[in-house]
Structure formats: structure tokens, C-alpha cells
Amino acid sequence: MTKKKPALGRGLSALLKNAETDVTTSKTDSSTQTTAESISKVLISSIEVNPFQPRTEFIKQELEELAESIKIHGIIQPITVRKMGYDKYQLISGERRFRASKLAGLTEIPAYIRIADDQAMLEMALIENIQRSELDAMEVAFSLQRLKEECGITQEALADRVSKNRSTVTNYLRLLKLPSEVQIAIRKRLISMGHARAIAGSNDVNEQLQILEKTIKEKLSVRAVEKLVNTQGKSATNETNKKQATWHLFAADKLSDKLQTNVTIQSSLKGKGKLSIPFKDKADFLRISKLLGIK
Fold this sequence. Notes:
Layout: H1 30-36, E1 39-43, E2 47-48, H2 60-73, E3 79-85, E4 88-93, H3 95-103, E5 108-114, H4 118-132, H5 137-150, H6 155-161, H7 166-174, H8 180-187, H9 193-199, H10 205-218, H11 222-259, E6 264-267, E7 273-276, H12 282-291
Parallel strand pairs: 2-4, 3-5
Antiparallel strand pairs: 1-5, 3-4, 6-7
Helix pairs in contact: 2-3, 4-5, 5-7, 6-7, 9-11, 10-11
């Protein structure tokens, strides 16, 4: 598995169009506003894809099936575009229909023409796809993060924009902290978001990868993964406690041998404790002091 995490394209600043040709930067008159509220036939060749599109994968067979349906029934639902200048448009939503229409050999496609700035473009593309459940969990996570960082939206506002509970948005964003192997498994739909959330319950990367491998190999349910994480977590805690409880015994033995007296060490689980070095008399004390380098 590759360790390189997927990304969702370049930053907004690298994708903005020339302000002189982008009608979103100009004042709209009544004719423009009328166009923005109607459905028009737009040349497919004059449309460029949305650089903010959160969906990154399209299944070839599904596109071909949709293309065949379009040949027979036409486009049932128009796509949405924004006007970028004279006879130039940029896709806001409906890329699957747009791609299938090209496969079907259409030269025109019905479209809603809207006025939208770049932040609105990203928001509309994300929201439209989330509402259609067409994104995998990682695509949603990357898109939410992009909205949050590039558009300066707080997590609470983000939840309102996409009509999700704040806890749901938090769970999506937590996926970005998982190892790339887990993220890829989500993208390939080898595990669900529920599995990923359970795996995130472990704070140890090696343990997360072990649980991932076991989950895929044995086709574990989400509940089974949660139980596995809890079990391994308790085992790790017990092992840590055991090491903390016994580490000082070895040290006490070594000191006892070196000082030729019965050294004892008492220690709490946090490491705090007391070192006791007994001596028989003043002569024995001076002997031990000399061995410790005390004059």
C-alpha cells in the first residue's frame, strides 16, 4: 500500500479565473439575472469541469449505462453551470450526467445557469453530492476540510452548510488523521466509515494497521472491530502497568549486588517512589557511601 495520502487538487487561488472574463465579479443586470434563473441549452464543448468537484472517481460501467439511458430518454435533470465569459461555462454540479452525455454523443445539454463565486462553487458541488450520497467517506472528509481551511468556515458553520450534525462532521474530519492505508481501504470500500471510526479508537498506528488487516481478511462487523479495539487497548494497558510495576525490581537487584546490602525500591504506576538502602553501622554506611561516590 502506498503511504501517500490522497489530495483534492490545488488551492483555490491557483484555480480562479481571470476577473475580467468571470461574470461572477461583475454587477448583474436584469437580463443576466433572468438567464441565471432559467434552463438553457448549452454547448457541451463550451463547458469545463468544476475544479472544486469533490468527487474524484466515476465508475465506467455506470457512466456507460447512463449514456445509453440518455440516448433513449434524454437528460431528465439539467446540470448546473456558471457563466465564465462569452460562451464559456464552468460546471457546478452534475458532472456524472455531463460525462455520460459526452459518451452518448450529445452536443448540447440542458443547464441551469447560475451566478456563483468560487466558494459557492465548492459548497454547491459538495452539498449536491453529499445529498445524493455519491461520495465515499474520504471524499466527504477531504471536501469538508477544504471548505473549512480554504473558505475560512468554522466547524459549527460547516455543519450548518451541509445540514449535518456537528458530531457527524467531526467524525468525517477524524478520518483524515488515520493512516493512509486505512483511508485507501475506505476509498476502495473495503471497510465502512463505521469500521474506520472504530479503528480510530486506537491511538497506536501499528495497532490500527493490524486491526485493519484483520477486519478486511475476516470481514469483521463494526461491532466486532469495536470489541477488538477495546480488547487490545486493555491488553496494552495491562502490559504497561505490568512493566511499570516490575521495572524497579531489576534495578533493586542490581543495586543490592553492587552495594552488598538489601536495597528495596517502592514505586507507583506513575513512577513516583522511594529508594531504601539499609546499613548495619557507621562503618557499613561509610562503605556504601564510598561505593556511591560520596566522600
